[in-house]
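Open question from group meeting: does this chain pack into something compact, or does most of it stay loose? Before anyone orders reagents, we agreed to write out a predicted structure and look at it together. Recording both the input and the output here so the notebook holds the full record.
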Amino acid sequence: MLVLCTRDPDQVRRWQAGLGAYHGQYQLCDAMERLAASGATGPGDLVLLDMEMARGRPERVLNFIAANPALRFVVFSALHQPEEGAAVIAAGARGYANRYMHPEVLVQALKLIEAGEVWLGADLVLHMIKANSPLNGHPVLESEQSREGDLAKLTARERDIAYRIVQGKSNKIIARELGVTERTVKAHLSSIYKKTGTRDRLQLAMRLKDQV
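Structure tokens returned:
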């Protein structure tokens, strides 16, 4: 189930512009409390949550996300600031995006999240790498000994991709730069995750940040 949680009709229209693949299979909700009480959502459901629902109190959104760990939240913010994004992800959200993101980018974000990854803009990825932020449910850093030799396990092409992941680049940009398809990038990423013991691009970037 996909849920669009906002009080802003314009935001609904922006989201709908990128949701053609869902063929209208989503529901609308104009109050977080109603979403939690409705019983209509279940484990693993994807919720597009407008940060404006906080009504000037961002802790309302953060607490709501933390109180509903079974749901996969993607938070959309007009501010789109690294500090806010880091707090949203630490609360348990699976994504943080610009409220005005392009419909095509929205499609990419939802595909990644449905595949089990985290969606973040390049600026937030770099911020979290530099800040070495701990993420809820994402043990991103282990002992120095366990991290040694991660790059040595990778092929030359996999190292090219890993380097770009640390830079916060999307699969689409990586594919364009390397002259391959996005499917090829995804296949390499699956191999990279397996070899490095990571689960998604953010965990990978945090693990390799001092090695590339």
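Observations to bring back to the group:
The longest helix spans residues 182-196.
Strands lie at 2-5, 26-29, 46-50, 72-77, 95-98.
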